[in-house]
């Protein structure tokens, strides 16, 4: 049996998770931003998993990657080798976790924001920041919410408010058929748009053959307080279609609020509930 003492807290901060096996085996979580890796990074992972693990890489539920079966004595070497090849440790515990994001408007035809860029900016500023509890960000390119903005402590979603240009409309009815929430009604030579029903998805702009729907406003919609796990709860919408500066101001204030008000181990949504949504809203939107 090994005589050495393992500093598990240090390992945990760095994204190492001790495995269930009796030997000193660790699973190493890696830092992945928005699920994006280069081919060089993938080659580095393949090499490291063969050299130090079992030649396997596990994809986690939040776009993370883990190399498992790494003996304790090899952890430092593994870390050094990966860092040299631009692959870095992930994190766990009461910290800001890896930021997840979809492809956004660089790739996806429905994308309304550059989700990857926003994810990188959040990661650069907040990744692994120590907080009273874990804190998860998600960035999703449009209200389809493939990245599940509503299941995270703070979710960012692209949005677009459409505007109808009467002179360009032929009343073909395609936008009525394509709107996912029945916010458009076309009758004879009339079109009705219900802003209260509209979820800001921008589908009508994609569908209309005559460009009779145009952009009125676009930006970032912010959800707060979501989580999954043993007691799941969907996030609530804090504000919609803000610009990038306002988005990052709200993120900063949200993190400040969490630092100031949260009890140890608490999730953001629980803190908001305990303190009161209106008080929280006043603090972050002031
Ligand atoms: S959330 Fe929207 S932009 Fe992102 S992948 Fe899904 S459909 Fe595309
Ligand atoms: S799809 Fe365009 S042209 Fe057809 S009804 Fe809608 S706005 Fe008018
Ligand atoms: S933006 Fe989406 S929800 Fe709103 S009217 Fe257009 S298709 Fe419907």
Automatic annotation (TrEMBL):
| Entries under InterPro entries matching the protein | 4Fe4S_Fe-S-bd (IPR017896), 4Fe4S_Fe_S_CS (IPR017900), NiRdtase/SiRdtase_haem-b_fer (IPR005117), Nit/Sulf_reduc_fer-like_dom_sf (IPR036136), NO2/SO3_Rdtase_4Fe4S_dom (IPR006067), NO2/SO3_Rdtase_4Fe4S_prot (IPR045169), NO2/SO3_Rdtase_4Fe4S_sf (IPR045854), NO2/SO3_Rdtase_FeS/sirohaem_BS (IPR006066)
Keyword annotations: 4Fe-4S, Heme, Iron, Iron-sulfur, Metal-binding, Oxidoreductase
Does the keyword section mention Metal-binding? yes
Among Pfam families, the record links this protein to: Fer4, NIR_SIR, NIR_SIR_ferr
Q: Where are the transmembrane segments?
A: none
* Domain 4Fe-4S ferredoxin-type stretches: 160-189, 190-218
Superkingdom of origin: Archaea
| Gene Ontology MF term list | 4 iron, 4 sulfur cluster binding; heme binding; metal ion binding; oxidoreductase activity
Family per record: Belongs to the nitrite and sulfite reductase 4Fe-4S domain family.
Specify the protein name. 4Fe-4S binding protein
Organism encoding this protein: Methanococcoides seepicolus
């Amino acid at each position: 049996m090994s005589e050495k003492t393992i500093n598990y807290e240090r390992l945990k901060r760095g994204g190492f998770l001790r495995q269930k096996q009796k030997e000193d085996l660790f699973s190493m979580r890696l830092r992945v931003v928005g699920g994006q890796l280069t081919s060089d990074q993938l080659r580095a992972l393949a090499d490291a998993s063969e050299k130090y693990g079992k030649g396997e890489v596990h994809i986690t539920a939040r776009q993370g990657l883990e190399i498992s079966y790494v003996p304790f004595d090899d952890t430092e070497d593994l870390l050094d080798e990966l860092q040299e090849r631009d692959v870095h440790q992930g994190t766990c515990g009461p910290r800001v976790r890896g930021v997840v994001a979809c492809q956004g408007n660089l790739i996806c035809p429905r994308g309304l924001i550059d989700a990857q860029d926003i994810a990188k900016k959040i990661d650069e500023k907040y990744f692994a920041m120590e907080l009273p509890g874990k804190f998860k960000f998600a960035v999703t390119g449009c209200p389809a919410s493939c990245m599940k903005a509503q299941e995270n402590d703070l979710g960012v979603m692209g949005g677009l408010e459409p505007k109808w240009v009467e002179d360009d409309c032929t009343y073909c009815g395609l936008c009525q058929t394509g709107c996912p929430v029945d916010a458009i009604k076309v009758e004879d030579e009339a079109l009705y748009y219900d802003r209260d029903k509209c979820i800001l998805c921008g589908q009508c702009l994609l569908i209309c053959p005559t460009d009779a729907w145009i952009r009125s406003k676009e930006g970032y919609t912010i959800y707060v307080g979501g989580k999954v796990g043993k007691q799941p709860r969907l996030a609530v919408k804090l504000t919609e279609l803000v610009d990038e500066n306002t988005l990052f101001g709200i993120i900063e204030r949200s993190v400040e609020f969490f630092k100031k008000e949260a009890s140890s181990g608490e999730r953001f949504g629980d803190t908001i509930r305990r303190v009161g949504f209106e008080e929280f809203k006043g603090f972050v939107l002031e």
